[in-house]
Amino acid sequence: MPTGCTSDFFIGPKKQNSEESFSYHIVLRLILIGYGVIGQGLSELLIARERELSSSYGLNPRVVGIADQRGALMDPRGINLPKALEAKRKKGSLSLSGSDYHKGMSATELLRSVEGEVVVEMTPTNLRDGQPGLLHIESALRSKMNVITANKGPLALAMPVLLESAKYHGVHLRFSGTVGGGTPILEFGKTCLNPDKITAIQGILNGTTNFILTRMEQDGKSFNESLQLAQELGYAETDPSLDIDGYDTAAKLVITANWLMAKRSTIKDVSITGIREITQKDIQRARKKGNAIRLVGTTEGDHLTVKPIEIAYTDPLCVKEALNGIRLISEFVGEEIVIGKGAGGLETASAILRDMLAIRERLVSG
Questions:
Q1: How much is the pTM?
Q2: Among 86, 80, 77, which Cα is nearest to 98's?
Q3: Which of 31, 99, 129, 198 shows the greatest Cβ crowding within 10 Å of its Cβ?
Q4: Catalytic residue flag (residue 252)
């Protein structure tokens, strides 16, 4: 357990000194569901930034439960996070970390067995039915626990319902890591452009497809050759369908449009065309006109579309390699473009930490 954690949950005054600038500190008991790359990255950040989170932000996070595919680890006093992380990475099992481990315990059983203020849902994305992440989020909200998720599936399929459930139960649902990884796309649009009204969105929201199209353009490779390279370098999964068929971009577009434009869309509302059919002839034809082909998610009035389109090389949105970029068009400011890394364990974990700090602020103020 991080040494800065206290023994009991509290929000209370604390004397200011040279190291601690916050007059109120809050202990947040965290339940982590899913302990893959993102969950382990989050653990790294919590361990490395323990002192800074306390002194600079008034936050003392305490992990009281972790669930992975094999079982669940729990300790109301706080799990020894360095040991849990070491056990998972070296042995592949949380059972060797020394805390109360329950082989075969599901995440929903863990939620019923240990109390916490924040559930962090990090299971793999499933765009067919959103499970099991959707069940985890619904269960946590009904139990009046705040939720942070990096899982696009539940939001792509049921975001309006989940937001209403969070409001009804008086808790917060945060999801900045679902779009742009660590790049604060959703925060920029929601906070920095407030009270302006966003009227349109155009985004390159999938780093895998962007890498493939960049390699086709710069190396003269075929689609299949570029895809194989992306898989070898870890940009694409063994089954790359979600990326190259446009569904990952569509999920992110739904989340962004719902959050920034107050739409009530699901992925079923998106017209989707992927990049499987893009050939070198298409690439060269666009290149002669000074353009590049990119997979772009767009809001067009009430319509949401994902398809490969031509973008001028001189357009700042024409990002290369695995970068993401999004253009937000608003009534007063006009065009704003945000560019950054769209994926990665530590990058997404940093977004989760950002959401955690936002929940801390709301709990203290509320």
A1: 0.91
A2: 80
A3: 31
A4: yes
